[in-house]
Amino acid sequence: MLGVIVNVITVILGSCIGLLFKKGIPEKVSLAAMTGLGACTLYIGISGSLCGENVLILIASVVLGAISGTLLNVDGAINRLAKKVETKFKKEGQSISLAEGLVTATLLFCVGSMTVTGSIQAGLTGDNSVLIAKATLDFVSSMMLAASLGFGVMLASVSVFVIQGGLVLVAGLIAPFMSTGAINEMTCAGSILIIMIGTNLMGITKIKVADFLPAIIYAPVIYILVNLISV
């Protein structure tokens, strides 16, 4: 769990630095920075989406994820939870919600091959090198995100601990199923959600990205089922 703890600490420290800078940044500069951050997020999403090898798996996972997430009202559940904390931290007239920062940062920090492979490697062999390398990247990302999206980014450190820590603990169980292909399809589906976040940050769309979160689970499951059927 060393790599997970290091990652959590770097997200918290990076967020604190970003929040300190946020106080002295004029609103027009903050809006410009958010647009730039959105463009960079689009690049990250597009790059990750190229990992997928089967577009039909991507389509199926995203559609099924959207249906499941909408029926379960995942976005509503996250917002209700976030609002309980948001009332203490959101200033009057502030347009960015706590939930937006939490969901955006969680996806950027927890979706990708480094999260899965690094956590499995740490759980099976005790090698935390991948997670520590990821922690360095997340430190920089959390500073930029917190400066634009606020306190919700710091709360994403809890998501990092739960998701990566959970993967480390169950590494022995999931390792046989999480082949390179399964990880790639999961990364691809998650990257589509990151693209949605990018367009939201740029003010182009107002997508309830949280409702698409089940797609990340569907992608590797569908990949595994397709391979079992084709054998």
Verbal overview:
- The chain is mainly alpha-helical and 231 residues long.
- The chain has one domain.
- It is built from eleven helices and no strands.
- It has helices at 2-23, 27-49, 55-72, 74-89, 98-110, 113-125, 129-149, 152-169, 171-174, 180-201, 214-230.
- Helix 2 (27-49) packs antiparallel against helix 10 and helix 10 (180-201) runs antiparallel to helix 11.
- The chain is globular.
- The mean pLDDT is 86.
Cα distance spanning the termini: 36 Å
Could you state the order of secondary-structure elements as H and E?
HHHHHHHHHHH
Fraction of residues in helices? over 70%
Mean pLDDT: 86
Radius of gyration: 17 Å
Q: Number of domains in the coordinates?
A: 1
Total strands: the figure is: 0
Give the biggest beta sheet: none
Strand fraction: under 5%
- Globular, elongated, flat, extended or rod-shaped: what is the shape? globular
